[in-house]
Amino acid sequence: MKQYRIEAKKRCFSDVPGAVFVSQSTGDRGMYVWDAKKGLVKFKGCVEFMDATDYGYGKNFNVTAIKKKYYDFPNREEAWLVLPDGTGYLWIRIDDQIEFS
Description:
The protein is mainly beta. The protein has one domain (5-97). Helices cover 8% and strands 39% of the residues. The chain has one helix spanning 63-70; strands at residues 5-7, 11-13, 20-24, 31-35, 40-43, 48-51, 59-61, 78-84, 89-93. The strands form 3 sheets. The chain has a 5-stranded antiparallel beta sheet. Strands 1-2 form a two-stranded antiparallel ribbon. Strands 5-6 form a two-stranded antiparallel ribbon. The longest helix is centred in the middle third of the chain and has 8 residues, at 63-70.
C-alpha cells in the first residue's frame, strides 16, 4: 500500500488509517496537526501550511504535546507525514516534495 500521494506537485494526501500531517509555519510557535486524508498544501509569504480540502487550519498544539503523542516535532517551515507503524510512528518529511500553491 502506498503511504501517500502528491497531486499536481502541490497537494499531498495519505489514506493510511491514523495518519496525520504535523507542521510548523515560519511565524508560529505552535505545531499544527492535520488529518492526512484531507491533504496538505503550502503557501508563500511566510511558509504556511493549510488543509488541502477546505483550506482550513489544523489543530494547534505546543511542542510538549506533540512530543508526548508522536515522540518528535517539526522545525519551523517543515511539514511531516506521521504514520502509525505498530510500535510508534514513522515520520516522512513532505514539505520539500510539494510546491507552493
